[in-house]
Fold this sequence. Notes:
DUF8149, DUF8149 domain-containing protein, three-stranded antiparallel beta sheet
Amino acid sequence: MTAASDSDDPRVPIVCPDCETTSRIPLSDVADTIERHNEQLHDGEDVAAVDPDIVERIADLAATDLGLLEDSEPESESDSEAA
C-alpha cells in the first residue's frame, strides 16, 4: 500500500484498557496492529480492541442495513388479513 492510499484509509480508534491507551490506526492495519500489541504486551490475550462504541455502531448499521431491526411486515399483513 502506498503512502497516498494510507492517508485516504479511514482511521479506527483502538483502545487498550490495561495500558490505558487509545490510538487511531488505518483501517487496513487494524487487525495486525491489535494482534501485535496483544502478543507483545499481553501474552496474546485479547485486551486491546477496536473501541467498543465503534463496534456497537457498526453492528447497528449492519443490522439496519440487513433489515434485522425492522418490524416484520409480512406477519403484520397476514395478521390483519386473518382478522
